[in-house]
Amino acid sequence: MDYRTAGVDIELGNRFVQGIIAHARRTHRPEVISGIGGFAGLCGLPAGMRDPVLVAGTDGVGTKLKIAQTLGMHRGIGQDLVAMCVNDVLTVGAEPLFFLDYLATGKLDPEILTEVVAGISQGCELAGCALLGGETAEMPGFYPEGVYDVAGFAVGVVERAQILDGSQIQLGDQVWGIPSSGLHSNGFSLVRQIVASTGLGWDHIPPGWQHSLGEELLIPTRLYVREILTALKAGIPIHGLAHITGGGIPENLPRCLGSGQSVQIEREWGIPQIFRWLQTQGQVPEADMWRTFNMGIGFVVISPIPLGEIFPDSFYLGRVVAGSGSVLDLPRLS
Q1: CA 300 → CA 118, 240, 311, distances in Å?
Q2: If you placed Cys at 153, which of 21, 71, 100, 296 could pair as Cys (CB 3.0 to 4.6 Å)?
């Protein structure tokens, strides 16, 4: 017996690593010291920082993976993975420095996993962070053949004096939403249950849609890093940031507020058709919709000034009021 007959092909794994090095190199920042292949990745801090604080975040993609693997559409998963991590790091005002990935599968398929890594590389380029390294684990008998899982880890940096921690937010500050690109990477256990109950295939195109159901659900998570960092570096007064992920607006928006504050929603917005379709098909209660999905808003910015010209596709949601950390008067869906 040997390792290969046990289901782990070391030579194939080595060739896979060599094949993805070019994707990683495209993302490297000036601070990167070491390349792919060592025991650890090395990255310095940006020059000129006075009191840098490292900021870390980790996440996965969830059961959105099952749809991607069923349809053979893997590249967007890589961008999802990066976005779910770096968008979190961004909420305290940090600039993402580097990213690490973990890929696990029952049997290594270089073609599929190279697509995933290409998507990770693309996400890192969009976020301006380096793909510093990662791990690929071939685990026969643990994952079925054809199945893979992914996890990501992002590290950023921010000046201590510029950390957004809720203390900057004042009563009366304006709350602005920046649209999501779709469902992003949350709520897919419910999504899959709803679609299964309809008996429709992933290639079904509902009336008035431009894409099939599967294509719509697999639109990659939007990255907000460059536009937010550009505004911060330009001196735009930003008091708070929230990434709208699992838990939706009711649970994520209060996480960036200060003590004794709530958000009063003062206007409706155009909730994308995919959310209304899911609610109708699954007869999902409104409260569950709000606490499961982003409902068309992927990121929230709190500022004392109007932000419509700073973030052209953003829209005014409401304002910060006295309260106990809640979101008041969410729009009715019906």
Answers
A1: 28, 8, 11
A2: 100
C-beta separation of 7 from 107 below 8 A: yes
Confirm whether 167 is domain-assigned.
no
User: What's the domain range around 53?
Assistant: 10-162
Question: What digits encode the pLDDT tens for the residues 258-289?
Answer: 999 999 999 999 999 999 999 999 999 999 99
Are residue 157 and residue 230 in the same domain, yes or no?
no
206 and 126 in a common domain: no
Helix 188-198 with 273-282: angle, nearest 10 deg: 60
Q: What is the mean pLDDT of the chain?
A: 96
HSE-up (13 A, CA, CB side) for residue 55: 24
Rounded to whole angstroms, the Cα distance separating 130 from 114 reads 17
- Domain shared by 141 and 208, yes or no: no
CA separation for the pair 66, 195 (Å, rounded): 13
Give the list of residues 6+ apart from residue 39 with CB closer than 8 angstroms, or none.
Answer: none
